[in-house]
Task: structure prediction
Amino acid sequence: MTPPLTGPFGRTVCAMVTPFTDDGRLDLDAAQALADRLVGEGRCDGLVLNGTTGEAPTTSDFEKSDLIRAVRDAVAGRARVTAGVGTNDTRHTVELARAAEAAGADGLLVVTPYYSRPPQDDVARHFLTVADAVGLPVMLYDIPGRTGTRIEVDTMLRLAEHPRVAGVKDCSFDLLGSAKVIARTDLLYYSGAEELNLPLRAVGAAGYVSTVANAAGALLAAALDAFDAGAPEEAVRHHQRALPLVELMMSSGLPGTVTAKALLTALGLPGGGPVRAPLRVAGAEWGAELRKAYEEAVGAPGL
Result:
């Protein structure tokens, strides 16, 4: 069943992997097949392309635009397509944002500038410059574990005043800070850590942006559906069923991109296969372990 579209980014959103051929080229046919499955069986009403899970650091600007166009055509309006455009260079980020808009993206995911660790005023100016340069809604990506810099609460409150700053992908692991911003703004908050999908929803988050949804989107969606239907005990059951798979995919020492592709390969689903260096493909034993955890969580492959 195709979910109804929700807001500018969706509600049950997959951080989609970027498929490559065996010789390392962008595999647009596999990307379209994966996107179609995610929107259908995976119950995703939004897709984030060219993000962390999508191996954005190792894809070219042209590949990013080609992927947006291909996925947009595959989902044909059935899901929001949000394009990751964040870099540590404001000028380059603006260029990617404009290219994503031209390629047909519905929204933009913009990460905090990394490595240079700018002060908060400069962090805010970076995001505002991007939002001023395009006509699309912007989702801020707060992931200090990778960037080295938080988007502080006061900065979030300032950015929320911009008409095109519409959402946050929250990987801060700061439930108090997130709850404060949710309470004081209209920003659409999205859990970027699957173990916090239900806790953040309980304090007003809009949904999630999930790597695990590449394979187990329907299970993650079921937890939010039950909560929204006023069945919190059922929501907790779905949430708890997913946790062993979440832990294996996201906290096992391998990047989520690698484990997601290994699981898709083990299940014979579109989107598995190679990753680009410096990442390396997980061994076959990982695929078997991931498949076992998946089947214990959701049942037969493909459900």
